[in-house]
């Protein structure tokens, strides 16, 4: 990323901060697009008519979020030819269809939840275009959270088999979602915080998610252990996976 291609709104910002934020925003958009597709695939096969309608509405929201997010990359010096990059910066669990409704709920809760937690950390970003997008996305994500929480409670109350299935799917989703923000000591992320581009670091995002999910399930007499990732040897900073 050359200084000449960087918009004046980011003039003087550490290039490492801009590079880190660009990878986060690009992956955010790709994951939003993938969630839209995965949600849409359940719009005709959800277990209830109400959930099918919700899946369709959330799919539309996510695709809209992706379209609104990609333009932010231009302010970060990403050329239009690289803007979409094949859409391959999504989490692996979104590469194909979600195998069952419980996997849908887990993705809604932890993948969508992690992305939204990051977006919340950008609502007061010094990059105004990002801040504007973040505030709009957060308004629409409220209903997604309500849907995720309601279904998590419902599955917990259906008995041991349904509850155990939910826990298994949540752990699978967390393994990938928890790694998405990256290592806690990432210098580029720290530089982005120092520049006011993002409010909170990866460890803070994971802690927020862990507290929310654990408290949600604890209210249903269900325990889950969401551990922080420790092995970053195979992690790709550009694809966030």
Largest sheet: none
Compute the average pLDDT. Answer: 92
Please identify, by name, the CATH architecture. Up-down Bundle
What proportion of the residues form beta strands (DSSP E)? Answer: under 5%
Please render the helix and strand layout as text:
Elements: H1 15-41, H2 49-69, H3 72-75, H4 101-120, H5 128-156, H6 160-177, H7 187-194, H8 202-218
Please tell me about this protein's structure.
- The protein is mainly α and 241 residues long.
- It has a single domain (14-83, 90-218), classed as Up-down Bundle (Ferritin).
- The chain has helices at 15-41, 49-69, 72-75, 101-120, 128-156, 160-177, 187-194, 202-218.
- Helix 1 (15-41) packs antiparallel against helix 2 (49-69) and helix 4 (101-120) packs across helix 8.
- The protein is globular, with a radius of gyration of 18 Å.
- The two termini are 22 Å apart.
- The relative contact order is 0.15.
- Residues 1-8 have low confidence and may be disordered.
Keywords for this entry:
241 residues; 8 helices; disordered N terminus
What's this, in brief?
By secondary structure, the chain is mainly α. The protein has one domain: Ferritin, core subunit, four-helix bundle (Ferritin, Up-down Bundle), CATH 1.20.1260.
